[in-house]
């Protein structure tokens, strides 16, 4: 019996330890002009996704790249087939596509609306003609078959993640650069058989209707798309919106996270950069990320290169919360914690990009081998409130342009963008009213129909400042995992809730098919559930940020003025505030709830109510930090490090909708 037991243990151990992680990253950006497709920046997504996977201990030789002319229809199929040959049961596979997408006429009668969704390889054309009838479009039927084949090969202890940074359709392409086409690929005279729009990515039904039979022990799969089936997928400052948000979200996760929770963070990040674009998640969404082998961001960063003896570069940047003027320590690699005994030198981040930083060292290094060094954060900087503003051609008044430009320059709040692709917000004029608009699609940011627009330069600047403050706080990320917590809104069902509730809101009708938590205005009621995931006592509070950037205190608030001890959580405690019921009113928009957890009592309500005035006398560093964001002109102080701030932040997105 002991021998059998030992054999079983060894079998389980060996099957776990030898499980591998594989990835295929496919990116097409420079399409041949003959295809009719526009150039997009898909190749910029590759280093983001690759580095994210390397951080999750994917081996570099297990990550295959297929770009531009190599990513033809046959090239993609060959790469998928080669990957199928090398994987084994229990392995983890990630497949990422960055390219155009397009809806195409259904060729086998399996679609209700008569349209397939398709990825657009390097050799696929944008229009149907006598020379090309869609044979190089990679249809959802084929993708569904490959998904089934991978799931069968990986088996029940494996896992498949697909990321689609493309889109298939959309009503228009106004504003920033988008991936996809609004035109359905079809012969002349073709008509859709239905007005019903696909939900989610539009691909899921073809997973279930695969030509290959799905085995009962098939692996779970998760499909995350940058936009729903009826939307365009916009780029963000030269990278794919999903590639950017996935990379940033993966950097923010704590312990024991599911793909459902990962998607919540992707949705939060998407709301910041493209507020009217709806990412989707489908499949086994409650599966644990990489079978619970997700690796939290380490407290150190590996050196990518030694540029000279006093300048180094690391493969992490703004996406990872590293900004200019952050100070660092350099230690020998393998160090568990920076201390006086092992610090080789200190330095300051001079330049921070999406996913890399350049650091100037105070003392030169003796060796140029980058593998000998690790970098630890000394005093963090949280960046600065800064917005790039683009003037639409509808703004003719030169005094408005001058007034806004002067306000941005004098307060070091931002600058006027030359191109819409680099803008955070677009100013448009209709009559005497100036509105703030999203660069992607040019939708009006303010969803309050009764108070849209500003008519004076002072009002415009106040609106811009609120927007900048909101964007800054949405992006603020504190990651002291000693105070890790999470929260969510759940339907108010009094007879089924208790303080230890484990109800999963994702299976409730409050969550739509894209994965977004929605509440119907003037009808739905929800309550707040908060969990302390740390082993320490913590205090929390939550603010709400609307589409305009305006801030309100969500917990506590005027109706629920909970004292500090009522927002105190013991280690591991889950508290459902079932007597504090939330109801909602228009405008109809997506909002972000941002929660803060700290080791000391915290209450943002007075700070928010007085627009920062009360924080001048507070001894709470986080309340003081929030109060300072209400000051338009912070000068150089806005760029200084903030060593006193300590805590953990968590975000939750919800949408107010009509009945």
Q: Can you offer a commentary on this structure?
A:
By secondary structure, the chain is α+β, with helices and mostly antiparallel strands. The protein has 4 domains: about 20-290, 3-Layer(aba) Sandwich (Rossmann fold), CATH 3.40.50.1460; about 300-380, Elongation Factor Tu (Ef-tu), domain 3; about 385-475, Rossmann fold (3-Layer(aba) Sandwich); about 475-655, no CATH class. The chain is globular, with a radius of gyration of 25 Å. Helix 2 packs parallel to helix 6 (about 240-250), helix 6 (about 240-250) crosses helix 7 and helix 8 packs across helix 9. About 20% of the residues lie in helices and about 25% in strands.
Keywords:
single chain; 659 residues; alpha+beta; Rossmann fold; Elongation Factor Tu (Ef-tu), domain 3; six-stranded mixed β-sheet; 11 helices; 31 strands; 20% helix
What can be said about this structure in brief?
By secondary structure, the chain is of the alpha+beta class. Helices cover 20% and strands 26% of the residues. Mean pLDDT is 84; it is low at 6-16, 169-174, 495-500 and 634-643.
